[in-house]
Amino acid sequence: MTDRTRVLDTAERYLCPDRVRTLRALGADLVIGRREGYRLWDLDGRELLDLHLNGGTYNLGHRNPDLVDVLVGALAELDIGNHHFPSVERAALAERLVSLTPGARYAVFGSSGGEAVDLAIKSARRATGRRRIVSVSGAYHGHTGLALAAGDERAATAFLSDGAPGEFVHVPFDDLPAARAVIEGGDVAAVIVETLPATVGFPVPRPNYLADLADLCHRYSTAYIADEVQTGLGRTGPLWAVERFGVVPDALVTAKGLSGGLYPITATLLSERLGAWLEVDGWGHVSTFGGAEVGCRVAEAVLDLTLDSATRANAARVAASFEQGLAEIAARYPDWLVEVRQTGLVIGLRFAHDHGGMLMTGALLRAGVWAIYAGFDPSALQVKPGLLMSHAEVDRALAGLDTACADVMSALS
Predict the structure, then answer these.
(1) Which structural domain range is residue 347 located in?
(2) CB contact at 8 A, 353 and 359
(3) Which tens digits make up the pLDDT trace of 137-188?
(4) Are residues 384 and 290 in the same domain?
(5) Does residue 4 lie within any of the structural domains?
(6) pTM passes above 0.90
(7) What is the pLDDT of residues 394-410, one digit of tens each?
(8) Counted domains in the chain
(9) Quick one: 383 and 289 in the same domain?
(10) What is the DSSP string of 262-325?
(11) In this structure, are 147 and 296 located in the same domain?
(12) R_g of the chain, CA atoms, integer Å
């Protein structure tokens, strides 16, 4: 099945009808074929620069040759392993992740971000003996049980997964008094926060907000869970974005980019208090595919490449180039691009239209660039450059954004 229209029709009928119809209406009728580095080709041969990266899954590019070599080599001797037993690969990756993560004592592996968030919440409840969970309005933490309940209220309610009244409480991001009003009741197991909330367009918190929130949690013996699925792995400068904001979490969740885009693997990194159950209940949480041995090999290579000095220098250069370029675009279109939210390579753009991000998604596709609007705030666009992007790719991305702004403004005038 290589005809794009046929694939879209089949997916609309059997797989994800509403999603296909929505994307088609935006002109985003993309079926990805070949992919390499930060470029994609659809089945018709159209080339696109990828500024979406599937939420940071492709931080190091699509089919990064170094990572592909590691995966192929691992498959020559390994498979997923057996989750009941320790393995060389799981033990080594766990030790390394714990050593790289402030406050961490244990690592537990999974195969999806939602699973990893579920485990963090379960661990907080077990450690504190409390049930209430506080999260941010408009947050996204995955579509599994507890993760869904902690995320956007609309999605949780649609699946009757919103829990008992008062069990999951949502407060505005960057609003410490609202969080304090709930936490000081003394019955909150955990606060879970995306360090920079993705699905509302990566708003940047005020100085000290996250650190003050963490301090508030610790004062009331409430666990602080950092969801770093999209913001971790070098995207903001340090390995974890919480390090940039002076936060030592009780649990940190990493996923997406840890896989290198090649083999699903996630990790929930737990403090001594939250992971104490591991000392007495070896089967308290099991995951057949969690920490698959071939995935561990890839994840080790992801960490090697992410932490390499050349990668970090390149990421800093790319971030600086985007900062300058976006400032120039905002100056050219002040009535359209009304807010640039940038923290390293985590970027949100807000436009002067309730559906500005959606309009930009379509216009960027026409300009040869793939980026997606913020799902819970369609006025905003998510922009996620890769850590290894070249000068030419940065120039192409900025040119595409400039062209898209001009095209949308012209169409609206």
Answers:
(1) 31-63+309-412
(2) yes
(3) 989 999 899 999 998 788 888 888 888 888 999 999 999 999 999 999 999 9
(4) no
(5) no
(6) yes
(7) 999 999 999 999 999 99
(8) 2
(9) no
(10) TS--EEEEE-TTTTGGGGT-TTSS--TTTT-HHHHHHHHHHHHHHHSHHHHHHHHHHHHHHHHH
(11) yes
(12) 21
